Amino acid sequence: MANSIEITMLLDLYGEALTNKQRDYLNFYYNDDLSLSEIAENEGITRQGVRDAIKRAEALLFDMESKLKFSKKLEKINNGLAEISKHAEDINEYNLANGLSREINDKSVKIKSIALSLTE
Q: 4-68 in CATH: which number?
């Protein structure tokens, strides 16, 4: 079985490329934690039909990720922003310990603020 967190993340990235039903079934299954039987009953189809739709949708999500690699790129961006924030904090600490330039302090705070806003 695929990792639930990975599927949820891929659904956030590529969900609009799926059909409404595929997106709904994945949301019901992974985000709302409904069983295949519960989804089938709510949607008026068989449990096997729900399972097949979910498996096809998962395959499409993984195929899109293998081609576009948005998830991997997003992870690299987030790691880079975390590193930028850490270096800005290091600069600020050095500045405080060695002479306190208001301009350096203001710039390092601004860098950290921008990096944080980009991760939200």
A: 1.10.10.10
